[in-house]
Amino acid sequence: MKKFALLLVALLMVPVYANAHAGVVATNPSTDEVVTVMPSEISVTFSEELLVISDKEINTITVASPDGSLLENLESRVEGPTLIATVPVLNPALDPGPDNEYPSGLYTVKYRVVSADGHEVTDSYTFSLNAPMLLVTESPTDEGGDGVLPLPILIAILTLLVAGGILLIRLRKR
Q: Where are the bilayer-spanning segments (predicted)?
């Protein structure tokens, strides 16, 4: 029993290494949502903090209108794990109405972020303004990772194998 306790302690002391990258946990508007008015802000929230470098814009977001042209004068900012773009009023001098509204149709939100672990994630999603969805979103791409297990995981696996082998040999000698 003492050996089992030692093995358990050894296993608990092996460092745990998470090999996950930032993933999207929420969007506003939601993916494939149909909205009746253009939101004043468009945001994408991730599962971990985004990297911010004061003099560089490494996290970007663009919004393409139904005709494919990019919305102009978007102001973006990062708040923890959230990338936010403020959507400008088309013409602040005009009252809201048909001549001062964004066109109905499918809008595509594209973003590129760098998470706190340094990995880049690029993806897009769509929402509709006054119209049903017509397109399927693209799948995410991850620029990081080379398919090789990180060193801490390899060390943990090797430690488990050695500890298990020693325990098995000692149990057989009894």
A: 149-169
Q: What are phi and psi of 61, to 5 degrees?
A: -145, 135
CB contact set of 55 (below 8 Å; sequence gap of 6+): none
pTM of the model: 0.61
Same structural domain for residues 117 and 164?
no
For residue 133, what pLDDT band results from cuts at 50, 70 and 90?
very low
**3 state DSSP class of 152:** helix
What's the Rg (C-alpha) of the chain?
A: 25
Q: Report residue 69 as tokens.
A: 């042209």
Q: Please, how many CA atoms are within 13 Å of residue 157, restricted to the half-sphere of its CB?
A: 6
Mean pLDDT of the chain: 79
